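Try this one yourself first.
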């Protein structure tokens, strides 16, 4: 008695269900995910835009009331420090908050199941959130320079300083949001970071005001070096050891990117 083996039935795969490879496919996926991110943020993007500008401009004006008299050194510190204070919430509040909202809405796992390169998803989130944060950062700088009559001296350091600072904020914030799945814990962490940066980091006041041991801690954290590299791009001869600050910021950026890559790579 002879037996015949029937060929296995072909399994139909829906078009677009397979992850496409190559630079062209990656760019296509990036554009699609940017549209997706914008569609999610669009209902409240106007509010975020206004709040970011109000925070930046508000800090530029508010910090001047902390001093009975604003001397030139204090004016320079405030005017060149508030852009950093305006940039930090983008990576450490907006990005983790967006991930937390996706978890609570039940769309987080859906987004990661889409047939798009995961690096394109992360990059799209970075670009959209950075676009929302930049107007507030620029407004804070312009208002601070006008309010305190500070002459800015832009240099070639400014562009890499802002780019590296932005990537650091987003990568660390995104990695933190992926590692910590509980939205309540993420909310507590982001509030603690904002509290630390606004009040206890020497960004708009002299570092010499802090005890030596406490200042050494800030030299290892990313926020003070971030403020210093941006300040170096806005002034001339004010910041020394720019290379050391870039090194610390670069280490934090690598850690943030590595953390995000590790978490993204472990998702199936």
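Now uncover the answer:
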């Amino acid at each position: 008695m002879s037996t015949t083996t029937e060929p296995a039935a072909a399994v139909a795969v829906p078009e677009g269900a397979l992850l496409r490879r190559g630079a062209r496919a990656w760019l296509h996926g990036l554009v699609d995910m940017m549209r997706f991110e914008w569609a999610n943020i669009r209902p409240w993007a106007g509010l975020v835009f206004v709040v970011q500008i109000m925070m930046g401009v508000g800090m530029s004006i508010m910090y001047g009331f902390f001093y009975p008299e604003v001397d030139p050194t204090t004016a320079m510190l405030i005017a060149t420090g508030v852009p950093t204070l305006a940039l930090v919430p983008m990576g450490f509040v907006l990005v983790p908050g967006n991930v937390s909202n996706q978890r609570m809405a039940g769309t987080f796992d859906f987004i990661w199941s889409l047939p798009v390169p995961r690096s394109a998803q992360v990059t799209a989130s970075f670009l959209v959130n950075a676009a929302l944060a930049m107007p507030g950062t620029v407004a804070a700088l312009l208002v601070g320079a006008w309010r305190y009559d500070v002459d800015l001296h832009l240099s070639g350091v400014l562009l890499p300083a802002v780019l590296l600072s932005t990537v650091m904020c987003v990568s660390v914030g995104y990695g933190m949001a992926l590692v910590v799945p509980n939205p309540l814990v993420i909310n507590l962490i982001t509030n603690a970071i904002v509290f630390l940066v606004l009040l206890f980091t020497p960004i708009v006041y002299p570092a010499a005001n802090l005890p030596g041991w406490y200042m050494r801690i800030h030299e290892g954290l990313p926020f003070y070096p971030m403020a210093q590299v941006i300040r170096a791009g806005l002034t001339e001869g004010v910041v020394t050891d720019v290379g050391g600050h870039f090194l610390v910021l670069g280490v934090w950026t690598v850690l943030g990117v590595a953390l995000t890559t590790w978490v993204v790579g472990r998702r199936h």
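Discussion: Residues 59 and 118 are 36 Å apart (CA to CA). Residues 1-18 have pLDDT under 50 and may be disordered.
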